[in-house]
Design goal:
EC 2.7.1.32, 2 domains, disordered C terminus, about 325 residues, about 50% helix, two-stranded antiparallel sheet, globular, alpha+beta, 10 helices, about 15% strand, Phosphorylase Kinase, domain 1
């Protein structure tokens, strides 16, 4: 569907509800989909256009976790409720986020894809775009982390601040595009990585922004209060989570590399090259050595090519405007 077709669908949706279309605003902070606010004469809604059309996991999860309310869902888009909310603060709202994540992990959603399958698919997609033996080498060094299935459950895998809503002193999780079954240890490790981000400001993870050891243990202590199925104390869980962070960095590096190769960049204000390099830097710290150096060189060369194309595109646009 073209953008005009989506706009027509929005107007039809509003007409059925007895509302008039006023306007539409692009959300700049969306990095995986195109997200818009729809304004009518009576209400506000969210329109999401799917970049990744494979959303069977998300559609299944929405049957069990209906926040926000979905008004219309088609193959290429959905229209959902706009919820007035505050943006949670990672450190100030540790208890609220830990509680929300524990409750999410305890939700039973049968028949959805596993993280292991999702990761293998991402590896294969990257290798199809351009084969790099270093990707296979890093995967082989990390796959032991996937062997223990004893702590598998529903995991979110994208707990950035934009996917959490603070409403009435509760945190609600939204946007389940990357949700799947997998290790809850991985999901917590992935969240700890996200605490190092500030996507409104830049495209990198900075350790000084994120949770320190004290924050992490406070989070785990609160989490364990709300997930009593875990037969592990805070110290044991902390050690497992720290080890699992490399898998999170590898997954999101592959996500960034794929987007750079496909020139599939949803957000004008997000630097996918810098993001991919930054994720690699954490794997470099984890002693993956030569393979990380080779992947870094590849991304740097892609970044140079991308900048050249951008300059050429801008010159072309200026020429068209002149004529």
């Amino acid at each position: 569907m073209s953008q005009e077709s989506y706009l027509t669908a929005v107007k039809v949706f509003l007409a059925k509800r007895g509302e008039k279309f006023i306007g539409i605003l692009r959300e700049k902070k969306a990095y995986s989909n195109l997200v818009y606010q729809i304004l009518s004469n009576r209400n506000r809604y969210i329109l999401k256009l799917y970049i990744n059309r494979e959303r069977s996991n998300e559609f299944e999860i929405l049957k069990y976790v209906n926040v926000p309310k979905i008004y219309e869902m088609k193959s290429g888009y959905r229209i959902e409720e706009f919820l007035r909310h505050e943006v949670p603060d990672f450190k100030r709202d540790i208890k609220l986020i830990a509680t929300a994540l524990a409750q999410f992990h305890n939700t039973d959603v049968p028949g959805i894809e596993s993280f292991e399958d999702m990761l293998i698919k991402l590896v294969l997609e990257n290798q199809t775009l351009k084969h790099n033996e270093s990707i296979t080498n890093v995967y082989n060094k990390l796959k032991y982390l996937l062997e223990d299935k004893s702590m598998d459950g529903l995991i979110h895998m994208d707990l950035q601040v934009g996917n959490m809503l603070k409403i009435d002193n509760l945190v609600r999780l939204i946007d389940f595009e990357y949700s799947c079954t997998g290790s809850i240890i991985l999901d917590i490790a992935n969240f700890f990585c996200e605490t190092m981000t500030n996507y409104q400001h830049d495209s990198i993870l900075l350790a000084e922004r994120g949770f320190n050891v004290s924050h992490k243990k406070r989070f785990l202590e609160e989490y364990l209060k709300h997930n009593r199925d875990i037969a592990m104390n805070v110290e044991e869980m902390y050690a497992r989570v720290e080890e699992m962070q490399s898998l999170s960095h590898f997954f999101w590096f592959l996500w960034g590399r794929k987007r750079v190769f496909m020139n599939d960049t949803t957000s004008d204000c997000f630097d996918y090259v810098t993001y991919s390099l930054n994720r690699l830097s954490f794997l470099e710290c984890a002693h993956f050595g030569h393979d990380i150096s080779k992947l870094r060189e590849e991304i740097l060369s892609l970044g140079s090519t991308s900048k050249t194309k951008d300059k050429s595109s801008k010159r072309s646009t200026r020429t068209k405007n002149i004529h």
